[in-house]
Amino acid sequence: MTVFRILSALAGALVLAATPASGARDWPEVIPLPTGFQPEGIDIAGGHTFYVGSIPTGAVYRGDLRTGQGEVLVPAQSGRAAIGVDVDGRKRIFVAGGPTGMAWVYDARTGATLASYQLSEGPPTFVNDVIVTKDAAWFTESQQAVLYRLPIGPGGELGSQADVQRVPLTGEFMMGPGFNVNGIDATPDGETLVIVQSNLGRLYTVEADTGVADLIELTGGSGNVMQGDGILLDGRTLYVVQNRMNQIAVIKLTRGLASGTITGLLTDSDFDVPTTIAEFGKYLYAVNARFGVMDPATQPFSVVRVER
């Protein structure tokens, strides 16, 4: 699940500029979430405010990186789920609905539902992650070779259900058994998307206009990003969360994003199946999904900070 946001980066830079250089180091390294929350996606927007979605309930938690405090903004609702989340510059939370095949848009200030969309035409489906560009919200599908595109008008108007587009993935992309496309990000102009294929450990660029996918040739490290989940593109550096491996791969991409080298791995003793990341200054914040834990409804969950 994850993210490339100029507005968020600028907001974070302004906050850091007004804070002593060592200030962020004094913020909590591990931020607790509500017991049993079962998180998956995370985004940071509006300074040091973060948003995390709950897989089984569709709830969205809003918290403060500086204090570690927060509250449920979007309440749990029957028939909803929250996997990937992304907050745009208009204070709207876009949520990928996983096995529901749906997507929702919420007001980041009030938690009110602004819109809902049926993205998938039917099973099998798992709407996994989302990234908002200047003219669309893009959702990944882990069970079919498609991306979903929700147009956004010049004034920020959300498209209707009839406007939802299914964009087939063509070119070098090939489906495999299990979970396929997972995390997504985009270049600043929104013309090129970057996706990770979890089951095969592959990365692709995708032309937003056509859906044509080109494999990103990887060297260094293991040469792949198996169990890749959320991703974050920062210039020509790509971070890929490898969930059950409890690590984040750091990849230096070439100009044009045609190839890349795995130059390092980020890990932390507090990682417990991290799934997605968001950035704030020199730090990444990863959400611990803790997949496979016994009785998750009674277990603690958290967000973990790691220096990049």
Q: What features would you describe in this structure?
A:
The protein has 308 residues and is mainly beta. It has one domain: Methylamine Dehydrogenase, Chain H, CATH 2.130.10. 4% of the residues lie in helices and 47% in strands. The protein has one helix and 26 strands. The radius of gyration is 18 Å and the shape is globular. The N terminus is likely disordered.
Tell me the number of helical segments per DSSP (H or I, 4 or more residues long): 1
Beta-strand residue fraction: over 45%
Fourth CATH level, the homologous superfamily: YVTN repeat-like/Quinoprotein amine dehydrogenase
State the major sheet: 5 strands, mixed
Helix-and-strand structural type: mainly beta
Q: Provide the CATH top-level class.
A: Mainly Beta
Distance between the termini: 18 Å
Question: How many domain units?
Answer: 1
Mean pLDDT: 93
Poorly predicted parts: 2-22
Helix content: under 10%
> What topology, given as strand order, has the largest sheet?
14-18-17-16-15
Counting DSSP E segments of at least 2 residues, the number of strands comes to 26
CATH-defined topology: Methylamine Dehydrogenase, Chain H
Order of helices and strands: HEEEEEEEEEEEEEEEEEEEEEEEEEE
Cα gyration radius (Å)? 18 Å
Q: Please state the overall shape, judged from the principal axes of the Cα atoms.
A: globular
